[in-house]
Amino acid sequence: MSSCDRPLLGAITIKDKADDGPRAAGGRAASGAPRRAAGLISLQRGDLPLLVFAHLAAQEGLVHALTTREGGASQPPHQSLNLAFAGDDQPEAVAENRRRLQRALSPGRLVFSRQVHGADVAAIRMPVEAGDFPVVATADAMVTDRPGLLLTILVADCQAVLMFDPRRRVVANVHSGWRGSIVNVIGATVTVMRRAFGCHPADILAGVGPSLGPCCAEFRNYRREIPRSLWPYRVADHHFDFWKLSRDQLMAAGLGADRIVSGRICTRCHPERFYSYRAGDKTGRFAAVIGMPAG
User: What are phi and psi of 76, to 5 degrees?
Assistant: First the structure.
């Protein structure tokens, strides 16, 4: 193992308040014992700290990573690895951050979608146009079997769901916020993998990245915003467990429970490590990336 890939075991022992109940008034959360983040490993690629899912990292010929907010060029309040051009961060800083991430995951090109909190899924079968950081579709999920394309989703409390079919050699990346959960963009993505790429859901591996946990997913207007059919995921007066919902949607689409891993890290509870819109509306975005390296 090279020095740049050595696991930083201490980096994944962070407080996870997913089981501590709702955040108390005034923004304080109940105390909880520190524990290892489920299924995640921390790696250092050059100067860039990254997280990977252990079950995906074990797959041959697969590249994937979750960034933190560390290791970049952006200045406060976007410090430091903001990967989104939207907002008032300096474009040259964001471009540098993207270049750093691409170097860390090379060979391959970062490709993006225009995320709109919907259920559209882009199946990428053709070559992608030349240029830096192409936006290939308006969609909240991307699926491809083309080596060299690193599918990139940007989040700050929403869930990024990474999927890989090792038999068919197909990858997918899903942006699922609460609106995406309502329209089941996860299920729509598995459907595209099955119909367009011949995947069998039982073969697919999935990882759900750091996102808003049930401790902090508060929806005071849930009776207007969230369909009654999803109210069973309510864990307190106004809080919802979207981690469980995503797991159930993956299983309903045909994935086995033993092939799904959730990082179970709440971004709102850890704004020092991850961007969180709920922790402060002037924030950046971190990334989830998955692809197969170029030959």
Answer: -55, 145
The helix or strand, by DSSP H or E, that contains position 14, with its residue range, turns out to be strand 13-14
Q: Under a CB-based contact definition with an 8 Å cutoff, are residues 219 and 166 in contact?
A: no
Q: Is 27 left (phi over 0), alpha (psi -120 to 50) or beta?
A: left
> ω into residue 80 within 30 of 0, thus cis?
yes
Q: Helix H segments across the chain? A: 54-57, 91-105, 178-182, 185-197, 222-225, 242-252
DSSP per-residue letters across 27-92: G-------EEPTTEEEEEETTEEEEEEHHHHTSTT-EEEEE-S-S--PPTTS-S-----SSSS-HH
Query: What does the pLDDT look like over 131-157, one tens digit per residue?
Result: 899 999 999 999 999 999 999 999 999
Q: Is 93 helix (H, G, I), strand (E, B) or coil?
A: helix
CA distances from 89 to 75, 82, 86, 272 (A): 8, 8, 8, 18
What is the spatial distance between Cα 287 and Cα 283, in angstroms, rounded to a whole number?
13
Give the CATH number for residue 175: 3.60.140.10
pTM above 0.85, yes or no: yes
Least confident of 31-35, 125-129, 152-156: 31-35
**Domain enclosing residue 208, as ranges:** 3-291
The model's pLDDT over 209-244, given as tens digits with 9 standing for 90+, comes to 999 999 999 999 999 999 999 999 999 889 999 999
SS3 label, residue 179:
helix
Neighbouring-strand partners of residue 162 = 173, 207
pLDDT at 13: 35
Say if CB 64 and CB 290 are below 8 A apart: yes
- Tally of domains in the chain: 1
